[in-house]
Automatic annotation (TrEMBL):
Taxonomic lineage of the native organism: Bacteria, Pseudomonadati, Bacteroidota, Cytophagia, Cytophagales
Domain PDZ: 297-388
Family as reported in the entry's similarity comment: Belongs to the peptidase S1C family.
Swiss-Prot/TrEMBL GO biological process terms: proteolysis
UniProt-annotated binding residues for substrate: H131, D161, G251, N252, S253
Cited InterPro entries: PDZ, PDZ_sf, Pept_S1C_Do, Peptidase_S1_PA, Peptidase_S1C
Keyword Hydrolase found: yes
Protein name, entry field: Do/DeqQ family serine protease
GO molecular function, one term: serine-type endopeptidase activity
Length: 510
């Protein structure tokens, strides 16, 4: 029976209940590779910039002193618009009444949120959670030595809730990357972060479980329980969390989970709590996923993720009987997507995937993690149980469009995706109605799936009439108006059709 995880919240600390969502994704960074400091066999790298850690690998003091210099505090500044009901009056009257007139435009309101991050390279690359930086117009990073830097977002991956940011600095202490696949349940771990803005807080616990799929990525989770979001909010969520009982609280998001050698095995992301504070369990993205995602974000600007192209179901004894299969451990293949890599490689509907490259697979999260570490064009060996017999199949993974090519990010599509909404042209009837108010068109917000619009209090049905003061009458004009506005503040103006005299204005940085 599947566990019903209630009260799961992400562990960023936010000073207000409402935020903007999304952030500009920077370019492909000219194909740069980040060089991780990985732990060699039976050896630990010592941080010369801060002195060698006290103690020996295997104790808490060593782990804390090795990790603390690599963990940073991240403060994000966002803008919140006035909500509907704070009426805003047409241009012709604004100069007369002024913004302080009751019901007048009060403009964007600033708010702050905070979290943690981990330095992964001496030249300033930092990994954190996507939800720590989403919606931010400014990012300030404070190092362990109190130095402060402005940071820019290199890339984000909502599918794993991982983001990479960068500060312009050199010779920074970088964390040593561990092997999360080798972590054992019951192993001691240390969490380092900035809960409640308390800098460099260290807690300890054990690994309680691995391969947890919680269904929280792509959900609206700030400040309380989980509310499912539209499936279009996140492209193929990938969840395979490490569960720990180390204390993690708001502000710990993006912080380090390390073993007693001081090696990074996860990025702290969520807690199971009915109150929003720690209540027994925390969840971290494994370092194997962190390495893959952050490397791709730095090199390509997006994640090059391989897909099998199948619809799956976890197995237990009841499901095995229902599907008529002879094993109750593994992942059942229900359907294929169009241009499925698995189908092309010989997988049949009704097969049970039991191994990937010789490693046993017990659940969908384990399969997702194994496949998610590969890029399109990579070959993997699947072992399937078919009619009670195991069969090995060589599969060439494909990208999400069904090809094997590396996908470059479409910058214009990335901007529209960051807005998190679907837009449509007005119908003739809607245009006729608006013409009474001397408006000759606009762009309708058809649906809101996530991103910046989801946090801006704009409701579906809102009609955008101006972008940066210039009229927009069609979706094409709207796209042209925001094209090339990366890193720029963009102001939107519009109205609701049921209140055409109430003009609303809001803005955020693309």
């Amino acid at each position: 029976m599947k566990t019903n995880w209630k009260g799961l919240v992400l562990v960023g600390l936010i000073s207000s209940a409402s935020t903007l969502a999304g952030f500009k994704l920077f370019g492909d960074n000219d194909g740069k590779d980040v060089i991780f400091k990985e732990a060699p066999a039976e050896s630990i790298t010592r941080f010369t910039s801060t002195g060698s850690p006290v103690g020996a690998p295997g104790d808490f003091v060593y782990a804390a002193e090795a990790t603390t210099p690599t963990v940073v505090h991240i403060k994000s500044t966002m803008t919140r618009q006035a909500s509907r009901g704070q009426q805003q009056i047409p241009d012709i009257f604004r100069d007369f009444f002024g913004d302080e007139f009751e019901g007048g435009s009060r403009g964007p309101q600033s708010q702050e949120a905070s979290g943690s991050g981990v330095i992964i390279s001496p030249d300033g690359y930092i990994v954190t959670n996507n939800h720590v930086v989403e919606g931010a117009q400014e990012l300030e990073v404070t190092l362990h030595n109190k130095s402060k830097f402005r940071a820019k977002v290199i890339g984000t991956d909502p599918s794993t809730d991982i983001a990479v940011i960068k500060v312009e600095a050199k010779d920074l202490p970088a964390v040593t990357l561990g092997n999360s696949d080798a972590v054992k349940v019951g192993e001691w771990v240390v969490a380092v972060g900035n809960p409640f803005n308390l800098e460099s807080t260290v807690t300890a616990g054990i690994v309680s479980a691995k391969g947890r799929g919680l269904g929280i990525i792509g959900s609206s989770r700030r400040g309380g329980g989980v509310t499912p979001a539209s499936a279009s909010s996140v492209d193929s969520p990938l969840e395979s969390f490490i569960q720990t009982d180390a204390v993690v609280n708001p502000g710990n998001s993006g912080g380090a989970l390390v073993n007693l050698k001081g090696e990074l095995i996860g990025i702290n992301t969520a807690i199971a709590s009915p109150t929003g504070s720690f209540a027994g369990y925390a969840f971290a993205v494994p370092s194997s996923i962190v390495k893959k995602v952050s490397s791709d974000l730095i090199k390509f600007g997006n994640v090059q993720r391989g897909y099998l192209g199948i619809a799956l179901d976890d197995l237990d004894s009841r499901k095995a009987e229902e599907y008529g299969v002879k094993v109750n451990d593994g992942v059942y293949v229900r359907e294929f997507t169009e241009n499925s890599a698995a189908k092309a490689g010989g997988v049949n509907k009704g097969d049970v995937i039991v191994k990937v490259d010789g490693v046993n697979i017990h659940s969908i999260p384990e399969l997702q993690q194994s496949i998610g570490l590969h890029k399109p064009g990579d070959k993997v060996n699947l072992t399937v149980n078919r009619d009670g017999k195991e069969k090995d199949l060589n599969i060439t993974l494909r990208n999400r469009t069904g090809g094997s090519d590396i996908l470059k990010r479409d910058e214009s599509a990335a901007i529209m995706n960051a807005l998190g909404a679907q837009f449509g042209n007005l119908t003739d009837q809607e245009k006729q109605r608006l013409s009474r108010y001397k408006l000759d068109g606009g762009v309708k917000v058809v649906s809101i799936d996530g991103g910046k619009f989801a946090r801006s209090q704009v409701e579906e049905g809102f009609i955008i009439t101006k972008v940066n003061g210039k009229p927009v009458r069609t979706v094409k004009e709207f796209q042209a108006a925001i094209a090339g506005k990366e890193e720029s503040m963009v102001q939107f103006e519009g109205l609701y059709p049921d209140a055409p005299y109430d003009v609303y204005s809001f803005g955020f940085r693309l």
